[in-house]
Amino acid sequence: MTNSVRKHPDGSRPVLVVGAGPVGLVLASELLSHGVPVRLVDGTPPGSSLHSRAIVVWPRSLELLGRIDAAEPLAEAGNRLDAVSYYSRKRPLGSVEMSRLTDTPYPFGLVIPQDRTEGVIRERLVELGGRVEQGSVTGLDNTGPRPLVTVERPDGRTEEIEADWVVGADGAHSAVRTLSGIEFLGSGEDVLFAIGDGPIEGNLHDNELLYCYTRGGALGFAPFGGGQFRLAVSVPGWTEDHAPPRELFQRVMDERAPRPGQIGPLKWTTIFRARRRVAETLRDGRVFLAGDAGHLFSAAGAQGMNTGIQDAVNLGWKLAGVIRGTLEPGILDTYDTERRLAAERVVLTTAKQTSWGLLRRRREIAVRDTLVRAARRTGVLQRFGAPLMAQHDVTYRPAESLRQTLPGVTRGAGAGDRLPVFSRHTGPKETPEPGQGRWPTIDARSPTVLLWAGQRQDGTWVRQRDALRESLPDTFPVRDISGWPGFAPLLGKEPKAVLVRPDGHIAALTEPDPAELRTALRRARLVVAALPRTDRVGRETVTEMGASAAVSAAPHVSPHVSTTDEGAS
Q: What structural domains does the chain harbor?
């Protein structure tokens, strides 16, 4: 039995998100926070998975989850990681200390079972008015003006859902990706790991993620707290019908771990195939891919789910702005270019970490160990390793190659980089005064203009600042951050205006000049529709100017403007 096409009760066609894992839940919650109707469909029965898959949440993900008020509950529920340590032949190579991060409210990683992560985000989804519908996608027609999705319910009924937009967050075997005909491209051989969860008695730290390398293979420990650990063991192959036994993990621990330990009964074990795949595109018209549906990585560094959460937020604020009519539709073109490049970078770094951990030749091992120890002594390991692990190094700078976006290649903040500024949909509307908060707040829904005086906060600066504020619609928050000295290494000595996206990435850096800033808004595709504006004496007026008209009035593209989209006009 097939039902007729269903629409949202208010007559609008909602966004349809397929997949209620962490990525789909975050995306749906983000859209609901913007007031955008969402339907969330998942084909996996609740509680059907016995295996906790992704277990580490890194600082950048916590920052973004703060937008939907999910970061604090997660931090309370998870076990904190202070450091990631590397060993070779049971001897220490070096550590990356997450606790030394200074530009985040979350200077730590979290180890937490994926089902608990999903539970926290699902609670926020329900509080925002959302719910998860059970059903599997069996058909997708993307040839019409709007996608038409066929969903089969658990009782065998089918429903056709017409939506303005469809997002496939339905995992590695994504039905949305397959039905869209999008190729899942890969390179390199798969690597097998035996993984399992259980207790270990011994002298292992409860707040340290360990990677242990030997000629025989690699071993990893992630602490859940209370003596419980996730174990991951590289295996050359697995042809057995049964799951890996506890004895395999114990033998490998005795051979590779830097400290002795006794593994107790394991809750579950399985074989994990570490693949490297990136979809040829993350967008096909009105259909998008996010999370594992769009990319798969090696398990090294626990970057998969975290990368998917960044997909969800990147797409969420852009899609919401287009649906609400506050952003130009062209902004959606940047999702594929930004997030596919980010995914390819993670493929590169995790593949390198995996291959370095599986070296077998003595000469290659000696070179690796020497390099890592030298990086530890000089501080390079901490300076580059901590942002890389935390995903603070993710940038949307325009680049001709992946090499140009590797951490440490450029200095100072540039267009596309993350700034330590944060937002919440339910947070304060105004930024605190210097000294009242560690970081300024930005708007969760629209671009924010941050003004930086540089070396001199004199009368000339005050006049420049006030003139710029007067030139923009009230729909743009304009905030002077000159009182926060922590931005000096990032923004330099000269005055500038920083156009910041709702996700905290820099859209453009310009001189504090109204014409240049309006040009930057246009080039970054952050133009909002004409909206009611309140004049300086409190009277609400409707103006044709708005941001769209203001930007349209800009006569040319200034050579002084730096944006993340060099070719946009």
A: 15-78+107-185+276-348 (3.50.50.60), 191-274 (3.30.9.10), 448-563 (no CATH)
